[in-house]
């Protein structure tokens, strides 16, 4: 099998996938999300990847494509139709699956499926921030619409702090306001093909830091899914609801009631922490999943 990974050219994550792919007899290559060219002339629409012959590949993994997502999705749809190329995630090229890239879709699906998550309000203008905050008790969490991996997330104690955060962010066109769930960290559950392969507990270690991300100095440790079946089932269900074939599902557990809440579903998640703390060979599991798609 020949695999092409899009994005994160110098990533250790890509190197791990190459390593495990080669162990299983596959060729794994990668390219930048900038390496796409689309030529269109009369009677011909031809997407190309610089220095790559797409027809030689069996599968493309859209790990991260940044702001160029629509061009990549259209290119992959074309290659799938022309060459029978398998695409992960399939929802990106499936004409029956309408993709709306906004966190609000995730909220809609969670409500429909009865999945537990923190009370949330989406606000599109700081003009209506005070109305959006109606019914919330402080502290609240405010997250902008364009950043990931813990960036752009703030815990605020009053309206003045909230207003300062929103008015000071000129890049975002929307914000999510979430109720704060008392917790001692979060759980990152890694799912492949809508099945949980492992999880780690992440705990903040810096004084005053509420985010548990490893990149912010969070401490990682193994989280036993066998003893926490409710968390496991919740992660598997939301990954399937969101049609995220390879996902990192973030869940927090209320420190008093012990009720789990879904916080976020991350597509193309980093797995270095999972391999380190949970001792799970995530790269190998991803390659094995690719194999299953081509059987």
Describe the protein's architecture and organization.
The protein has 295 residues and is α+β, with helices and mostly antiparallel strands. It has 3 domains: 2-92, Rossmann fold, CATH 3.40.50.20; 119-179, 2-Layer Sandwich (Dna Ligase, domain 1); 186-294, D-amino Acid Aminotransferase, Chain A, domain 1. The protein has 8 helices and 15 strands. Strands 13-12-11-14-15 form a 5-stranded antiparallel beta sheet. Strands 2-1-5-6 form a 4-stranded parallel beta sheet, with helices on both faces. Helix 1 crosses helix 8 (282-294). The protein is globular and about 55 Å long. The termini are close together.
Short description, anyone?
The protein is built from eight helices and 15 strands. The protein is globular and about 55 Å long. By secondary structure, it is α+β, with helices and mostly antiparallel strands.
How do the helices and strands line up, and which of them pair or pack?
Elements: E1 2-6, H1 12-23, E2 27-31, E3 36-41, E4 44-49, E5 59-62, H2 69-83, E6 86-88, H3 103-113, E7 120-123, H4 129-132, E8 140-144, E9 153-156, H5 159-168, E10 175-179, E11 186-192, E12 195-203, E13 219-222, H6 229-241, E14 246-253, E15 260-267, H7 272-277, H8 282-294
Parallel strand pairs: 1-2, 1-5, 5-6
Antiparallel strand pairs: 3-4, 7-10, 8-9, 8-10, 11-12, 11-14, 12-13, 14-15
């Amino acid at each position: 099998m020949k695999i092409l990974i899009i994005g994160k050219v110098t990533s250790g994550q890509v190197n791990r996938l190459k390593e495990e792919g080669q162990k299983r007899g596959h060729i794994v290559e990668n390219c930048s999300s900038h390496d796409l060219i689309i030529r269109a002339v009369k009677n011909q629409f031809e997407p190309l990847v610089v220095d790559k012959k797409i027809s030689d590949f069996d599968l493309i993994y859209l790990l991260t494509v940044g702001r160029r997502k629509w061009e990549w999705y259209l290119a992959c749809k074309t290659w799938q139709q022309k060459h029978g190329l398998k695409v992960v995630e399939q929802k990106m090229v499936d004409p029956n699956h309408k993709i709306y890239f906004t966190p609000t879709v995730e909220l809609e699906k969670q409500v429909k499926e009865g999945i537990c998550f923190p009370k949330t309000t989406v606000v599109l203008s700081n003009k209506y921030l005070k109305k959006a905050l109606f019914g919330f008790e402080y502290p609240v969490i405010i997250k902008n619409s364009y950043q990931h991996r813990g960036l752009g997330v703030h815990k605020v104690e009053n309206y003045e702090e909230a207003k300062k955060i929103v008015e000071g962010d000129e890049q975002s066109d929307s914000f999510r306001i979430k109720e704060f769930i008392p917790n001692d960290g979060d759980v990152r559950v890694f799912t492949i093909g809508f099945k949980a392969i492992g999880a780690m507990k992440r705990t903040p270690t810096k004084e005053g830091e509420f985010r548990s991300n490893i990149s912010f100095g969070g401490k990682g440790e193994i989280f036993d899914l066998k003893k926490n079946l409710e968390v496991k089932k919740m992660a598997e269900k939301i990954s399937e609801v969101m049609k995220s074939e390879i996902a990192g599902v973030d869940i927090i557990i209320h420190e008093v009631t012990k009720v789990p809440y879904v916080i976020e579903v991350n597509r193309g998640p980093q797995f270095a922490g999972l391999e380190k703390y949970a001792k799970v060979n995530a790269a190998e599991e991803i390659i094995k999943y690719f194999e299953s798609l081509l059987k």
